[in-house]
Specification:
The protein has helices at 11-28, 36-39, 48-55, 61-64, 67-72, 100-112, 118-125, 130-144, 148-155, 158-168, 171-184, 190-199, 202-216, 220-227, 230-240, 252-265, 274-283, 286-299, 304-311, 315-328, 330-341, 349-359, 364-375, 379-386, 390-397, 404-416, 418-422, and strands at residues 77-80, 83-86. It is mostly helical. A hairpin with a 2-residue loop joins strand 1 and strand 2. The chain starts with 10 loop residues before the first helix and ends with a helix. 36% of the residues are buried.
């Protein structure tokens, strides 16, 4: 029996929901909610905004339901066999019953089916972590003689295509692709260059450089030199050296010395010694810089970011301010990125895809929580208001349970609001 509130829906939608539930259960092990009325909230189906809001109540469900517990625990490590191990703050975990051959076969059938079975493609890819997806790619090519990413590119369109292709890249490939696009597109996207280089480890940057050379037959440093200039180029090349101190130990004397050097190089002199700022901000560890920022307040009447805004301008100002933000609180930096991507009348879906994909196995749980703290609302609610069809992919991929009302509303949205989505979420 369908709930009274859904009495007006078409028979076609009922069939689509039934099939979607079967597909979802097959690949996720989820079961239909035993009491559908308990998960059904009051909803005026004539209101698009309410439909969208209810849909994303489950967005990041597995992240936010324990957020208070996570927030209270400041220890970022757990003990495994008596040894400390970093906690995992990603939202994508390895699929427990993984079978690359089976997944490759299912994807092939979905791609070759009449009209392309997007439901199956989504169900498979979003439940596997990156390592498992790479294995699927290898098996798919071995069994079909074709590349999975090329077949998906030919079968899918728009944001769903972009997301699936992003998920099929290794982290280094995805970063290299983003850097290449940032330098070879219409103009240079300086924000992406800084975002990636300021938030990756030394090892990750070395791997990005290797993959970039392998994929594009050019040195990343040369690309940067060709498309940027001045102090901004110097800062980017400094980060590309991949020699940042990654220790968690804080040298109190060095923090005091650096804070005084920054003050003398900026506020307390005619002109600005930009190289001194670049040297300190690109070579010190996050914890070390955090203490330096705190000490800066003892030698200056303003904060370091404010001093940078007063002393510098243009790309180098934005670059160094972003480095400061990353060192101080990386999840907050990305939370701000997501918020800015959804401001105004448009939605920067490329930013949403880039951040969600790149941080899904790193710290996306922390980013979600930080967003709530900074903006006093949930990121899923903002995404649902502003984003287009690609959010359906992430709504499903980042939730570990699929229930009746959630699945049905997803299809309701794709069926009744296609024009809304095609306009970029406005």
């Amino acid at each position: 029996m369908w709930p009274v509130r859904f009495s007006h829906v078409t028979a076609q939608n009922k069939q689509r929901y039934t099939r979607y539930t079967q597909v979802s259960n097959k690949f996720t092990g989820a079961e239909e909610s035993p009491n559908r009325s308990e998960v059904l909230e009051p909803l005026d189906l004539s209101s698009c905004s309410q439909i969208k809001m209810s849909l994303f109540k489950k967005f990041f469900n597995d992240i936010i339901h324990n957020r208070d517990t996570d927030h209270d625990d400041d220890d970022d490590s757990v003990k495994v066999k008596g040894k400390p191990k970093p906690k995992y703050y990603g939202t994508v975990t390895p699929y427990p019953n993984f079978n690359a051959s089976s997944d490759a076969s299912v994807l092939q059938s979905a791609i070759e089916s009449k009209g392309v079975d997007e439901d199956v493609i989504i169900s498979v890819l979003v439940r596997r972590n990156n390592e498992q997806r790479q294995k699927i790619k290898v098996v798919y090519e071995a069994s079909t003689g074709k590349k999975l990413d090329e077949d998906l590119k030919g079968a899918l369109r728009s944001d769903l295509e972009d997301v699936t292709l992003a998920l099929l890249m290794t982290p280094a490939q995805f970063d290299a692709f983003q850097l290449r696009k940032a330098t070879k597109g219409l103009g240079t996207d300086e924000d992406i260059l800084v975002e990636i280089l300021a938030t990756r480890s030394n090892q990750e940057i070395c791997e990005i450089k290797r993959v970039f050379k392998e994929e594009y037959e050019e040195e990343l440093e040369d690309d940067i030199k060709d498309d940027t200039s001045g102090d901004f180029t110097e800062a980017l090349l400094a980060m590309l050296k991949a020699n940042k101190d990654e220790s968690t130990e804080v040298d109190m004397a060095l923090a005091q010395k650096d804070s005084e050097t920054l003050f003398e190089s900026g506020e307390n002199t005619d002109g600005t010694n930009v190289s001194a700022f670049i040297d300190i901000l690109t070579s010190r560890s996050g914890p070390q810089l955090t203490k330096t920022f705190e000490n800066y307040a003892s030698v200056s009447d303003i904060t370091l970011p404010k001093a940078l805004e007063m002393e510098l301008e243009g790309d180098i100002e934005d670059c160094l301010v972003d480095i400061v933000k990353c060192a101080w609180n990386t999840p907050a930096f990305f939370a701000e990125k997501l918020n800015q991507a959804m401001k105004g009348y448009g939605t920067c879906e490329e930013t949403l895809i880039r951040v969600l994909v790149s941080r899904s196995e790193v710290d996306l749980k922390k980013i979600v929580e930080q967003y709530r703290v900074m903006y006093n609302r949930r990121v899923q609610e903002d995404i649902l208001v502003k984003c287009s069809r690609m959010v359906l992919f992430f709504t499903y991929s980042l939730s570990k349970e699929t229930n009746y009302i959630y699945s049905f509303r997803l299809f309701q949205l794709t069926t009744y609001l296609p024009l809304f989505f095609s306009t970029g979420g406005n």
